[in-house]
Design goal:
- Helix content is 75%, strand content 0%.
- It has five helices and no strands.
- The chain has helices at 21-35, 38-57, 72-133, 138-161, 164-179.
- The protein starts with 20 loop residues before the first helix and ends with a helix.
- The relative contact order is 0.05.
Length: 182
């Protein structure tokens, strides 16, 4: 009987334990990071020198990789190491690419927030400039105080002269001040 397409498949049992991608990725990054260090190159070089020395000058009966065969076992060991290191390095690069993508997205969001903040501050500064243009400046206040002081001095002089026209002049000046635009 054919399987129905509208029902999900049942989970199959596997003999292998399920590996978590993130844990395996962390291990592969650790291995790839170690393989990119001078310490790894030193250990690999020491391993190859020891292998070659043992199989070249060691006891004849205990040599396991003959120089006459071109050190075939060493070549196979290095090929095996290379065949495992390439996918591990690629996996580590993929994880780094994912991290870079997330970082780029965060940078883009941060740049958008900075732009919005900058635009807000620019609008606030423009509003402050407009508001400050309507505020009395120091020079304006000084000129007004100077004018008032002159008028008070004139009033005092007029009061001292105590002539008939002085009272009329004071009244005219007050009337003029009240009708002048501020």
């Amino acid at each position: 009987m054919a399987e129905r397409l509208d029902t999900p498949k049942t989970a199959r049992r596997t003999w292998l334990p399920k590996l978590e991608d993130d844990a395996f990725g962390k291990v592969s990054e650790g291995i790839a990071r170690f393989m990119g260090t001078p310490r790894f190159l030193l250990w690999l070089s020491l391993f190859c020198v020891a292998w070659l020395a043992w199989n070249s000058w060691g006891p004849e009966g205990l040599r396991f990789d003959k120089a006459a065969n071109g050190f075939t076992a060493l070549t196979l060991m290095l090929s095996l190491q290379a065949s495992y290191s390439a996918p591990l390095i690629l996996l580590a690069q993929n994880r780094q690419t994912d991290r870079d993508r997330v970082q780029a997205e965060q940078d883009r969001q941060r740049a958008e927030r900075n732009l919005a903040d900058t635009e807000f501050l620019a609008r606030e500064m423009a509003a402050l400039r407009i508001a400050l243009s309507e505020v009395a400046t120091r020079d304006f206040v000084r000129s007004e105080l100077r004018n008032l002081m002159e008028e008070l001095l004139e009033d005092r002089d007029d009061a001292e002269s105590d002539s008939d026209g002085a009272q009329e002049r004071r009244t005219e000046r007050r009337d003029r001040r009240s009708t002048e635009p501020s």
